[in-house]
Amino acid sequence: MRITAAVARERFGAFSIETLDLTDPRPDELLVRIVASGMCQTDQHGRDGYYNTPLPAVFGHEGAGIVAAVGNAVTKFAPGDHVVISYPWCGTCPNCRRRMESHCQKNFDLKMRGTRLDGSTLMSQDGTPVYSAFFQQSSFATHAIANERFAVKVRNDAPLDLLGPFACSGQTGAGAVLNTMQPRPGDAFAVFGVGAVGLSGLMAARIAGCDPIIAVDIRASRLALARELGATHAIEHTGSTDVVADIRKITGDGVRFSLETSAQPAVFRAAVEALMPAGTCVLLGSARSGTEVALDMPFLQFGRVVRGVIQGESHPQEFIPKLVDFLMQGKMPVDRMMTFYPLADINRGRAGFDRRDDDQAHPAHAALTDARYWGPFRRGTGGGARR
Fold first, then answer.
1. Which of 129, 144, 272, 288 is 20 to 30 A from 237 in CA distance terms?
2. pLDDT tens-digit profile of 103-121?
3. Domain range for residue 289?
4. Residue 363, by phi and psi: left (phi above 0), alpha (psi -120 to 50) or beta?
5. Which of 83, 58, 77, 68 is nearest to 5 (CA)?
6. What is the pLDDT of residues 43-99, one digit of tens each?
């Protein structure tokens, strides 16, 4: 079928709005009419060559929409179902067999190569392939193909145009807290960087009953929003600010949990140094390969844990519906982090990333023709694949 999509044809270049041909769904695949899709720095990094994704390509990995057709082997979905398209996994590697799908050992190829595992593409133009299976969806388009294993059915009364972030940023930030940290009420929590991933983690910390909840960022506007969404304290991280000392003034011994979303080595180190003994720092920020940070070994020896997390270590079929319920209950108002753009204005959203400071993008959101497209509301965190 003929669709409209945002195509990247050069590194660091603008997206172009083009008409493409979309393949028919295979027996185990869905055709989804995209209602909304988020933009993440991971999409920008894919375009710019961080992951060697070939061009021309269609990016987008936070799609939400309505099932238009299903392959003849699909049993869990039917036309008309509302879905969020989440991250892919192979299902056969040692980690997948242990239900650690977010750490699938084939996730780099599944997410970043722009093809199915067999090398086929989903979109083409005049018979020439366009790389179009980014995260096995490429949702910067009016329609996308998704394997039924990666689609999540959601309640029909939830606003689809708000649900796409749960495919990546929402489940990455909230999952890092609720699935990985599993804090108890009263545990001290700090989040470094309050773009959409950090704010999702912050809202999850509030749901879990953490206290205090400390937000750290370089922009006062983000910190003001963090306060409104549940932060008990806010620290504006300037060059003269001793963030660790400020956190210890608030907590005494440091925080039980810290969440790092900036991918900046100095900020990551501060997130570790803010820990109390036996505390845990979770790294979500996706840095370029080769980025290093120095940590004090004796400091870590006192039971402190530093670990990376991908996609919130969630099981999407179970976790995303919980996030949707939180949204509907008013506990996770992700709409506060969004700005909408039409598909024709996708480059306005992209420009927000290019204008940002190095720490993170400001909250925003965007829209496609029949769909909506969100951008730029966060730095790429959690969705970046690893080798």
1. 288
2. 999 999 999 999 999 999 9
3. 173-310
4. beta
5. 58
6. 988 999 989 999 999 999 999 999 999 999 999 999 999 999 999 999 999 999 999
